[in-house]
Amino acid sequence: MQKFTIGEHEFRANGLPPRKSFHVARRLTPFLSMLKDLSPFLRGTESLDKDDPSSIEKVLRPIGAAFAQMPEEDADYILDTCLAVVELKLKGDAGWQTIWVSGEPMYDWIDMPMMLRIVWQVVQANIASFLSAGAPTG
Question: How many domains does the chain have?
Answer without folding.
Answer: 1
